[in-house]
Write a structure and sequence with these properties.
Radius of gyration: 16 Å
Number of strands: 7
Number of domains: 1
Order of helices and strands: EEEHEHHHHHEEHEHH
Strand content: 5-15%
Shape: globular
CATH architecture: 3-Layer(aba) Sandwich
CATH class: Alpha Beta
CATH topology: Rossmann fold
Helix content: 25-40%
Largest sheet: 3 strands, antiparallel
C-alpha cells in the first residue's frame, strides 16, 4: 500500500499514480497525464478505482488540442532557455517559494540536460496519425466500458485542461452519479497550489470505494 507521483511518456494527459491494492490514476500534473490515463485504460484488471485531475483528456489527435496546448508545444521547441522551475511556477495559480522553483530546476544544471523535458509536450498526439494515437483510442474504448469508481478532481483555473473533466464524466460509466469536486484556487499544477485539498479528495474517494 503506497502512493507515488509519476511522470511518464506517451499519451495525452498527466497524473498522479496511486497504488492501494491496485493501480489508481489521478490526473496529476506535469507532462505525462496522457500516459497515466492510457495506462489505466490498457490495464483495467489491475485497477479498482481511478481518479482524474487537471491535465486534459487522453488525446488521440482526433480533435483540436486547443490553442493553449499547441502554443505550449511550440514554446517547448522554440525557446532558447527552457526554465523548468519557471514553467512550473507559471502553471500555478499561486507563486511558488524560490526554494521550490530551485528544486524543480535542480536536475537540469544547463540546457543540455533539458532535451527530454522539451520532448514531453511533443508526446501528446495532436494529429490522427501520431504514433501514440491508436493506443490512446484503444484506451478510450476501455474507458467507455469502465464501471469501476471513477472521480475527476480538476482545478478551477487551468486554461489548458478546463472542460476536460466533462468528457470523462460523460463517457466513463463509473463516473456517473458521483459528485465530482472542482478545487478552487488551483492551476495546472494542482498538487502545488492545493496539495492538501487534492490529497483530502483522494483519501475520501479511496475510503468511500
Amino acid at each position: 500500500m503506497g502512493a507515488a507521483f509519476g511522470f511518464a511518456p506517451r499519451g495525452g494527459c498527466v497524473h498522479l499514480a496511486i497504488r492501494i491494492d491496485c493501480h489508481a490514476c489521478c490526473n496529476s500534473t506535469g507532462q505525462d497525464r496522457p500516459a497515466r490515463d492510457r495506462r489505466a485504460g490498457n490495464r483495467p484488471a489491475r485497477d479498482r478505482r481511478a481518479g482524474n485531475r487537471p491535465t486534459g483528456a487522453c488525446h488521440a489527435g482526433d480533435r483540436h488540442a486547443g490553442d493553449a496546448f499547441l502554443a505550449w508545444q511550440r514554446y517547448s521547441q522554440d525557446t532558447p532557455r527552457f526554465h523548468v522551475g519557471g514553467i512550473v511556477n507559471g502553471g500555478c495559480a499561486t507563486d511558488l517559494a524560490p526554494e521550490i522553483v530551485a528544486a524543480y530546476d535542480a536536475p537540469f544544471p544547463d540546457e543540455s540536460y533539458k532535451e527530454g523535458a522539451r520532448q514531453f509536450p511533443m508526446l501528446v498526439p495532436t494529429t490522427p496519425d501520431d504514433p501514440a494515437s491508436e493506443a490512446n483510442r484503444r484506451a478510450w474504448k476501455v474507458f467507455e466500458q469502465w464501471d469501476k469508481p471513477f472521480l475527476t478532481a480538476f482545478s478551477d483555473s487551468d486554461p489548458i485542461t478546463s472542460g476536460a473533466e466533462k468528457v470523462f464524466q460523460s463517457v466513463v460509466p463509473g463516473a456517473h452519479g458521483r459528485t465530482h469536486p472542482t478545487i478552487a484556487g488551483g492551476g495546472h499544477f494542482l498538487q502545488e497550489d492545493k496539495g492538501e485539498d487534492l490529497a483530502a479528495v483522494i483519501v475520501d474517494f479511496v475510503r468511500a470505494t
